[in-house]
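WARN  no MSA supplied for this record, continuing single-sequence
INFO  ligand: 3-phosphoglyceric acid
INFO  echoing inputs
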Amino acid sequence: MKVLLATQKPFAAAAVAGIRSIVEEAGHELVLLEKYAEQSDLVAAAAEADAMIVRSDKVTAEVVEAAKNLKIVVRAGAGFDNLDLAACTAHKVVAMNTPGQNSNAVAELAVAMMIFMARTQFTPATGTEIQGKTVGIQAFGNVGRLVGAKAKALGMNVKAIDPFLTKEQIVAGGAEPAETLEELYSSCDYVSIHIPATLQTIGSIGYELVTKMPKGATLVNTARKEVIDEAGLEKALEERPDLKYVTDVAPDNLAVLQEKFGLRVFATPKKMGAQTAEANVNAGLAAARQICDFFATGCTKFQLNK
Ligand code: 3PG
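INFO  complex generated
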């Protein structure tokens, strides 16, 4: 079988080597498409593939339709908003992710971002400490729980909310449950966002929630830019000169935000939450194993389009 590893943002060399040995030892062929310039490059490469491993690469209906031999696509990572699941289902393509494999990398970045903003982007200006402050975790899944544990170890109070968890489960995960999202935002010095981009969450964090945050608070987004209502955020930052926003996913209005709010806003130049050697290896190798298991035994653990 031809396994296409299509990564516009390539994995570390060690991860690619590990993927190659898993794929080849199982008797398959690895085809590499890295740093491609156009979506049409992905469409063309997909045409020959029996299986695909991707990161945030866009597996659109066009890609799935062009991939006549495709049987399985694995998103090496957690968020699968880049996969057209309906198209996969329509073409009998099994779609999977690799949950948890890159969570620690994202959680470490979220904590680093809190400290970076607390210390005014590592400029000599007097900053603040995160010890003794409260972080609110919006969605207490794999990443959220790790952020909570790390924040606790740094002396922070941890609150959390998650529509899919009971209060008992949140307590068991080491956080104090917030009754409502409004309560989380109004009682936390930092809110760290860990929700996926779905029809329900897109544009869901804006003026109303952000302006509820206490004086000097910071919003931390290592999730998806789409969950932010950017105009609402801009208005909130305009009205509240004490608030800060730090994000791993540059908003469309970044230039405006940076010009207006200077050191109160920071965005990484490229999404880098999962960009560690360890996360690349964990997610990449898991994806390769899931594909080989699927071909060998029909295993569909982690299938998203059941
Ligand atoms: C994820 O959803 O797993 C992360 O956002 C990582 O995305 P990436 O593979 O594009 O870095």
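The radius of gyration is 20 Å.
INFO  checksum written, moving to next record
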